[in-house]
Amino acid sequence: MAEVADTIAVRADERFDEDGLAAYLRGQLEGAEGPLVVRQFGGGAANLTYLLDYGTRQYVLRRPPLGPVAPSAHDMGREYRVLAALSAVFPYAPRAFLFCDDVGIIGAPFFVMERREGVVVRRSLPEVYQGLPDAPRRMSEALVDALAALHAVDYEAVGLGGLGKPVGFLERQVEGWYGRWQKAQTQSLPQMEAAYRWLKANVPTESAASLVHNDYKLDNVMLAADDPGRMVAIFDWDMCTLGDPLADVGALLTYWTQPDDPPYMQMTAMMPVGDERFLSRAALVQRYAEQSGRDVSAIRFYHALGLYRLVVICAQIYVRYQRGQTQDQRFEAFGPMIGLLAQAAEDVAYNTDQGAYGL
To answer: Which of 53, 127, 207, 216 has the highest Cβ tally under 10 A?
Structure first.
């Protein structure tokens, strides 16, 4: 069976009992009677994602990262529930077929979803788009427009009204991520304390509640190979909840970059860097405002919250690496980034210039 271009051989420490999985899935998925070949999607830094290739059918399996994880994090049951409901009305949500909470099968809860074909853009512009001068602009616009469409979904109508508690969402975000920081930090950072104090004191009036993806960025979406302006799928729904949709915009700004960003911000960007053809942060904010009709005047708070959250995510990943819970060498570089990102969170919080957002 030929190797699939967007996958790698399963990393040594992230293998599982493939025969046991094949036996479990036999009879539960269409086409799962034949031999199974497992490969791994190499991108991403948290949940582990595998390709299940039966020759005539392919599926995708998602499971939490190795090592102990927070009880509310990396929730495969939640991701399954969201996709099972949302895929009926939101075309960018892949269908979910099966959830298993028996850790005896592969060592962790997991779910299986449909395999979609397309292009995931990471740190460099894919070759398929390099002959299209307007590709960066088109994918920028598609990213914002899909986010506005998600926030317009009637979550009650699709059966997701119990997914979260919208009231007090922002306060819980500030306090919740601070609590996670206390558990994951390997060094004391006054910048994080300063950012926490500012966020706590400046919580805005929340926008009308919607579904919140909670990890929305360019490398969590898939675009059509023949059209960078056409969305194929949105991935990583395990933190989806109900709350203030502008938190998603703040997260997008956090992972975005512009050619004039300092080097450490370009290092954490989940997109090609140094390409002025991508929309600026200000243009992203303004397009979202136009597409959603929402008030974005407090967007600086959400950007600061996104950076504050990213510090904690990096700390959680780095401490797993430091404790030997994962052998993935990519995570060694997260250590030096933590202090720089904490400084960025403080800088955005205390900078009163709204020009960066076109306001």
So the answer is: 216
Instruction: Tell me the CA end-to-end span of the chain in Å, nearest whole number.
Output: 54
Q: Which residue stretches of the chain have pLDDT < 50? A: 1-3
Q: State the Cα angle at 82 between 118 and 63, rounded to 5°.
A: 70
Q: What is the CATH number of domain 12-114?
A: 3.30.200.20
> Which residues on neighbouring strands pair with residue 212, listed in sequence order?
241
Tens digit of each residue's pLDDT (9 = 90 or more) over 254-286: 999 999 998 878 887 889 999 999 999 999 999
Predicted TM-score (pTM) of this structure: 0.91
Q: Which amino acid is at 72?
A: S
> Pairing between strand 58-63 and 48-53?
antiparallel
Q: What would the pLDDT profile of 189-242 be if each residue is shown by its tens digit? A: 999 999 999 999 999 999 999 999 999 999 999 999 999 999 999 999 999 999
The whole-angstrom separation of Cα 75 and Cα 108 is 11
Sequence-distant contacts of 130-136: CB under 8 A, at least 24 apart: 132/228, 133/277, 134/277, 135/228, 135/277, 136/228, 136/272, 136/275, 136/277, 136/278, 136/279
Token pair 């293998």 in the structure block, residue: 15
Q: Please name which of 299, 287, 298, 292 lies closest in space to residue 253, comparing C-alpha atoms.
A: 299
At what angle are helices 246-255 and 169-184 packed, to 10 degrees? 40
Q: How many CB atoms lie within 10 A of CB 268?
A: 19
pLDDT given for residue 69 in this prediction: 60
The partner residues of 243 in beta bridges, in order of sequence, read: 210
Where does residue 219 rank: exposed (0-12), middle (13-18), buried (19+ CB within 10 A)? middle
What's the pLDDT at 5?
65
Please state which CATH number belongs to domain 127-357.
3.90.1200.10
Every domain of the chain with CATH number 3.90.1200.10 lies at 127-357
Beta-sheet strands, E only, within 4-141 = 37-40, 48-53, 58-63, 96-100, 110-114
Residue 88 pLDDT:
95
Q: Which two tokens stand for residue 190?
A: 């006054």
Q: How many H-runs (helices) and E-runs (strands) does the chain carry? A: 10, 9
Q: Is 74 left (phi over 0), alpha (psi -120 to 50) or beta?
A: left
